[in-house]
């Protein structure tokens, strides 16, 4: 009998139904324009190869294959069980990392992760382990994986060194960095200290997106929906509703209230990018901001608006929005309100036993003021220096991003002033509310 060669043996296995196993990866795609542009600019500047340019992402597991002949959906079940009731994964890009790989070097953003992200990653790794066949060293020891966002990878040593030197050629001042020619360029990464949120978890099979888990909707999307603008808009809408950033019906107070908010920036598409606002575009943002205001503020309420109502007449002028906003509005002028009638530079009022100075830019407040300064202007660009609540400097930052895009009552602010410790700092309203809830419940509350 003739001996069967290697090619013949391979063909026999193929005809017998023995096929190469699927290779999987689980990752979080980073859908942030600032991150994408930053990495794209570095790639263009240094001529990274096209095959070495990837969509910004955070790798959670893989590449790996599965044991046995069980269904691929085992992976989907592991993801679902790891993220019960989560609406997003949050992280903050930090310093750069210099990593050595099998095919060269990589430069990446290190990430500061909250406990929720770490707990999710630990749960996912634990649930996946029994199913994995071939896997990387990091999937064998998940605690050794350093989660990051890659800027460039598979780089030759000299090129990696040049990029590394460029990124460390000077301090990354808030909002700006310098290119390889020393020219200042806008840097949206260091210019926003707001956490970077991701709303979906992607499962890749053989290098392409197979399924994507929509965290706000707690549902799986097929490939066609993962790149649909309408589906992405629905993901963000569900997130906003669940997190209280989009009101679906009026929530008026029975009594007349005084509210405050700043920096709505109606029309300003780029503010979505600068400040990581969870909207797909300016028209969607305008619609939500207008509805949020009118679902919280009734006609007899008072509102202190602390500047920068709109930016540019691209969709409607500022007066258009002003005429459609409920309440008796006191307009404090911001740096984008030139020509808007009826504005004042600042104003003062005592409410709930507390003196408040309402002003747009906190740096323009009198240094000797002995009440509380309520301001905007800072957005979420530096939440260490300008958090929502700053007991150290007796300041409240009511920029739209920090108060959840909904006017905030001064009654609630006064409550934080009365109950917070002397030097308490709350980066955002969400954290302030969580802290107050924990304090109200007490340590012995079951």
What does this 3D model show about the protein?
29% of the residues lie in helices and 25% in strands. Mean pLDDT is 88; it is low at 1-6 and 8-17. The chain has 446 residues and is of the alpha+beta class. The strands form five sheets. A six-stranded mixed β-sheet has the order 16-17-18-20-19-22. The chain has two domains: 21-241, Cyclic Phosphodiesterase, Chain: A (Alpha-Beta Complex); 251-440, Metallo-dependent phosphatases (Purple Acid Phosphatase, chain A, domain 2, 4-Layer Sandwich), CATH 3.60.21.10. Strand 10 and strand 11 (219-222) form a beta hairpin.
Topology, pairings included?
Blueprint: H1 6-15, E1 24-29, H2 33-46, E2 57-64, H3 74-82, E3 89-101, E4 104-112, H4 115-128, H5 137-140, E5 148-155, H6 157-167, E6 176-178, E7 184-186, E8 196-198, E9 200-205, E10 208-214, E11 219-222, H7 223-226, H8 229-242, E12 258-261, H9 269-274, H10 282-296, E13 302-305, H11 318-322, E14 328-332, E15 343-344, E16 346-351, E17 354-359, E18 372-375, E19 389-390, E20 395-397, E21 408-409, H12 410-419, E22 425-426, H13 429-441
Parallel strand pairs: 12-13, 13-14, 14-15, 17-18, 18-20
Antiparallel strand pairs: 1-2, 1-9, 3-4, 3-8, 4-5, 6-7, 9-10, 10-11, 12-21, 16-17, 19-20, 19-22
Helix pairs in contact: 3-4
């Amino acid at each position: 009998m003739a001996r069967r060669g290697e090619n013949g043996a391979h063909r026999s296995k193929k005809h017998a139904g023995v096929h190469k196993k699927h290779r999987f990866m689980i990752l979080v795609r980073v859908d942030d324009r600032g991150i994408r542009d930053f990495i794209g600019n570095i790639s263009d500047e240094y001529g990274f190869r096209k095959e070495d340019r990837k969509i910004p992402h955070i790798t959670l597991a893989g590449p790996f294959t599965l044991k046995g002949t069980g269904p691929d959906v085992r992976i989907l079940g592991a993801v679902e069980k790891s993220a019960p009731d989560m609406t997003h994964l949050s992280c903050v890009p930090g310093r750069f990392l210099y990593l050595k790989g099998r095919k060269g070097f990589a430069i990446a953003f290190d990430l500061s992760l909250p406990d929720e992200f770490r707990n999710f990653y630990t749960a996912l790794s634990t649930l996946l382990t029994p199913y994995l066949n071939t896997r990387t060293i990091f999937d064998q020891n998940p605690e050794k994986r350093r989660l990051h966002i890659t800027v460039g990878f598979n780089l030759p040593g000299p090129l990696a060194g040049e990029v590394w030197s460029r990124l460390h050629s000077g301090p990354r001042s808030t909002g700006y960095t310098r290119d390889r020619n020393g020219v200042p360029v806008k840097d949206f990464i260091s210019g926003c200290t707001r956490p970077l949120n991701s709303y979906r978890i992607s499962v890749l099979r053989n290098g392409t997106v197979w399924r994507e888990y929509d965290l706000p909707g707690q549902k799986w999307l097929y490939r066609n929906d993962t790149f649909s603008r309408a589906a992405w808009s629905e993901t963000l809408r569900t997130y906003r509703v669940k997190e209280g950033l989009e009101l679906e019906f009026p929530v008026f107070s029975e009594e007349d209230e005084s509210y405050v908010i700043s920096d709505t920036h109606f029309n300003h598409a780029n503010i979505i990018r600068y400040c990581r606002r969870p909207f797909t575009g300016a028209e969607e943002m305008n619609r939500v901001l207008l509805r949020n205001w009118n679902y919280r503020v009734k006609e007899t309420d008072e509102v202190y608006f602390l500047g920068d109502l709109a930016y540019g007449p691209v969709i409607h002028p500022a007066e258009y929005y002003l005429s459609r906003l409920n309440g008796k509005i006191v307009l404090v002028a911001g740096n984008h309100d030139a020509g808007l009638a009826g504005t004042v530079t600042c104003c003062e009022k005592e409410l709930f036993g507390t003196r408040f100075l309402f002003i747009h830019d906190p740096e323009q407040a009198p240094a000797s003021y002995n009440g509380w300064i309520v301001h905007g202007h800072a957005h979420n660009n530096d939440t260490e220096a300008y958090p929502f609540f700053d007991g150290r400097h007796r300041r409240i930052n009511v920029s739209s991003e920090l108060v959840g895009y909904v006017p905030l009552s001064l009654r609630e602010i006064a409550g934080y002033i009365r109950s917070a410790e002397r030097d308490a700092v709350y980066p955002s309203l969400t954290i302030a509310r969580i802290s107050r809830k924990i304090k109200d419940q007490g340590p012995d509350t079951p």
